[in-house]
Amino acid sequence: METLETVHSGTKRHKKIRRHSTSLDIHAQSMRRPPEGDSIIEKAPMKLGPPPVPTGPKKKVNENKSVAAMKRRKRRTNMSSDSGLETAEDDANVKRSRSDTKSDFLTSLGPLNDISSIHPVLDCTMESTFSKKSKSKLDVTWEKAVCNARGQPDGAERSMRMAKSSAKNPESCAIIEENDENVIPVESEDEANGMVDEEEEEDNEMVEVKKMEKVEKKKKSLKDKVQGAVKKMKKLKEGKATTGKLKKGVLKRKIADVMGSSPDGGGLKKAKKSEKESKEEKKDFKKLRNNYDLIQNSKKIWEELRKHDVTVDRKTKLCAELLDMSKGKMQLLAFTHDGARVIQCLIQHGNMEQRAVAFDEMKNNMVAMSESKYAKFIVRKFLTYGSKMERSLVFKSLCGHVRRLIRHREASEIIEYAYNEYANATQRLAFLEEFYGPTFTLLKTDDAKSLEDVLNLHPKKKDMILANMKETLVPLIEKNILTHSIIHRLFYEYFLHADSKARSEMISELRETVVNMVHSRDGARVAMKCIWHGNTKDRKAILKSFKGFVLKMSKEEYGHQVLLSIFDVVDDTKLVSKIILEELLKTLKEVAMDTYGRKVLLYLLSPRDPMHFHPDVVKVMQEGDTNEFSKKDTNVRHDELLDVVSKPLLKIVIDNTKELVSDNNSLLFLLTILSHAKGDTTKALEAVAEICAEKMNNSSLGDLHIVEHPAGHITLKKLIAMDKEKMKNKESVLFSNVLMNTVPESVLKSWAACNRGCFILLALLELGNPEVTAQLLPTLATMKKSLKMLKFKGAQLLHDNILYNTKDD
Q1: Which of 626, 655, 684 is the endpoint of a domain?
Q2: DSSP code at position 63
Q3: Entry pTM
Q4: Is a pLDDT exceeding 90 seen at residue 698?
């Protein structure tokens, strides 16, 4: 008890006693009894809030409780109120008298084994974890001893938070203990009275100090970032391998980005440089590269060598200088942007000897050059301008790597260029054999020229070859590498020799990406086979993939044949109309004026007509007739598609009659529309007759009238000849009747003045239409003498016909 009384004697004695409180802590921990009352674990679950107010008589609290503790309690009250915690008990505790607290504290202390009964164990809350650390520098060793002696109840939420916080910050546990409400700080009244002003001043100072520390930290971080950027720039300049990839202004951009996030909110404004400064910086940057002097000197020769007005002797001399300068260093120059340009010019303009020297230096590095962004063009130059031996060596160096290089973005262009432009049948097969299997990669066959020949030589290896091809081709579909013709050839060969099951599996893999293959002959054949042998689901997916590409396909040499195969076999004509025909009709004039686009429209009007389609094309189309998935009758399918396009085609004749009647390519197209389109053709025929009604010396077609035009007079003769079939079918609308009702009599007589006009009049008389003959013959009968005087063949035949028809008169 003496040690406890000396606590209040003075500050110095108070500190001395607290230095020896460690033994008391140990003794208190060993002699502590469990807290009185029920454990908090047995009660209701923990709630975030202050402990409940005890129902029994309240103990008086000492009035001499420090003002600092009261201030801390107010702070906790504000924090708890912000977080939704109740603060009724804290307000009550602040108003308790200091004298009662002091007396209760002295009387409540007993032996160390009863130290846990100083204060009742209350339900722990989150207030201690949220409270701020006290600004006072009090010695709290005795309070620590009391806390350690009392301990914490099992399962208390506070103990778990202390464990977590102590793991992160060892000082957090001490902070919680200092701010605990159950611990009464022991301090003198003088200290308590003088703490308010000191703490307020300390609070203001701490806020300003923290602000200054934040600003200094941000400044330091900015400096560190700038210094880091400078160091990286220096490392990049020192590194030889990466100097060629440096870009001007990297350092300044990094510094500007760093300073743009400064606390003041201001960033570096890029000053506009003059052209001279930028050129100087660019020149200094280029000097960091290897072989800078060599590249600069060679570029001077290159600038003169590539001019068109340089003589042959001068080119030979410049190439010799350039060869001497770059000899032994061509492989280094080939992989740079400007160095590759110089070597390309040397190969193109040099003679055979100079080209051979350059090839000998680079021939062992062709595969790596093919994979380079710049050196690949040198390989192209050797293929284009090289000798037969040099070209064969390029093919030989690429063989064995085709299967890998075809997947490379840069090298695949070289493989495609070599295969399409300069490879013969043997070299093409050498490229393709790498996809047949490892055996054919190592052992080339000279006798075979295609997969069919290989299978005839090795019939037992058919399954193995097709399995290897499938294993190679499926990844190409997944990577969407389907634009090269060598890939199209592989797919076409696979479809030719695979069975129906394997073919169906490949169609299901290829159906959404086959649109990338229709621009080549083999690729178009692959797309046609997918349409012929695909089921309804496959055909629907293929048609949907064509959406947006129909116009382009209709104007391609091989792509338009894919559309013809769709018209032949797809039973869902509504889907065809929605995806294919709808896109065609939006740009119908553009399609009609194109050579291959007209074939698509002609196939809709008159499919497989030998007048419009070559027999070989018809033979190819007949391969799809035996497919197992088309159930609708061919004529029914054709009629449904024709109903969709007839009206727009007749309208295009009305709107573009002059272009159609005066163009040899459009002549048959016009006749086919007027003969096969469904609907009323009267307006279209009247549009043609109105052009015929123009005067001979005032034609809208130019210098020649339609009856004298090479294509126009054939158009009129064909239309008149079509009336014979219409008369047999007893059709009411005839072009001859429309023509006679539209063209004036004076214009008809003027036609007899030219040879082609006489043949048109003769065709009208020979038609056998009673209405036309009765109207035309009296007009021509008055011209017998004039026709007899004309010497050209048409006039003589017309005169004889008139005499024959009027001799009875």
Answers
A1: 655
A2: B
A3: 0.63
A4: no
